Amino acid sequence: MNKTLKPIPAFASEADERRFWETRDSTDYVDWSKAQRVRLPNLKPSSAAISLRLPVPLLERIKIAANKRDVPYQSLIKTWLAEKLDNA
Fold first, then answer.
1. DSSP state of 9
2. Helix/strand/coil percentages in the chain, nearest 5
3. pLDDT of residue 1
4. Rounded CA separation 84/54 (Å)
């Protein structure tokens, strides 16, 4: 059975497109049976800089732990946070 697909409109902004897809079923607009998998090996997740106040003794302990593992302390903090959330 061939389904007639609706045309995807042009969007003025990414926010407009997001609102559109939040309220629509994509199968009305896209034939997913013809979709192909793609790999984006160089795609890096976006990140945001934050300011986090830590007690000096805690930061020193984190830096010592990072030094023992031979990794930057910021990377170790990110790893620990991710692990904690994965186990939550």
1. P
2. 50, 0, 50
3. 55
4. 18
